[in-house]
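Hi there,

I know you've been waiting on this one. I reran it after we fixed the sequence typo, so this is the corrected version. Both the input and the resulting structure follow.
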Amino acid sequence: MSDSNQVDQLDEQVLAEYLTQHLPDFKGPVSATKFAGGQSNPTFKLQTSDRTYVLRRQPPGKLLKSAHAVDREYKVLAALQHAKVPVAKVYHLCEDPSVIGSLFYIMEYVEGRVFWDSSLPEITSSDIRGQMYQQMAEVLVALHSVDIEKVGLGDYGRPGNYFERQLSRWGQQYTLSETHEIAEMDQLIAWLNAHLPADDGKVSLVHGDYRMDNLMFHVSEPKIVAVLDWELSTLGHPYADLAYQCMQLRLPENVGKATGLGGVDRAPLGIPTEQEYVATYCRLMGIDNIPNWNFYLAFSFFRLAAIAQGVAKRAQDGNASNKEAMKVGAIVQPLAQYALQLTQGR
């Protein structure tokens, strides 16, 4: 099976034989269907005669160092099984790439709703929208309050200044993924390096991609039942997650797949402003305010741009998960431009 086919298909017979040997109570045959959406780790719904599972795998082909770390996803999900952060149950990690062509893990299939539009047009009540954003803040605070040593994640990230490490990592990833020169990205990287805040010692588990479409809500209630897509999780600075989510909400609807709230009057929708949302987070975390907020926001725009460039590079190389991935490269320059506005205090 070629790499391009492997992204969308699995050898169901080989997979069923493997899972029969390694997964308790598994009974084949199995039917695998790839979920739509997402550009990173291909994810499949596995259906047997009596159960439904989810398989998440690395994409095939040559990958950037440290990218698509499904083994790290499995580790953090396993560690959070009894924490206050809602996550799917995980059952098995396969570290033998010869089975289906890359590493993968198996987890439970959770019923729920995923919303791609941050304005929540599917929700008819402004009160319910407000409750959903309140729930997002509460789950983020629960995540940042996890006792990392107690759950066995004390070695899940490196010590030192998180933003310094992240700036170095994503700067290198961007350089490796660069398909053409983008002046705004070069300017942004220079500004971020020149304005890096001093390390304040804050360390927590961070999700790395905390946003509306990576949260699964209850089928009928404004309650999060599972936080999804932990590929970028690590030990780091909690404000990185908060700023990344607020950055997502600043985006207009034509940048990326998840629609932002840039220019949207939130009050009639029942959705808090950025200031209100940050104030809620601060209250729940027991802190007064967040210094250097524009740096954290600008860094978030930069990191998303670097991720998008990586998606575009994989598409060019022929091993991206999503067939729309080539279009993602077009958002890199606009993201850098948004960030540069923040560097001027806007």
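Quick highlight: DSSP finds eleven helices and nine strands in the chain.

Best,
R. S.
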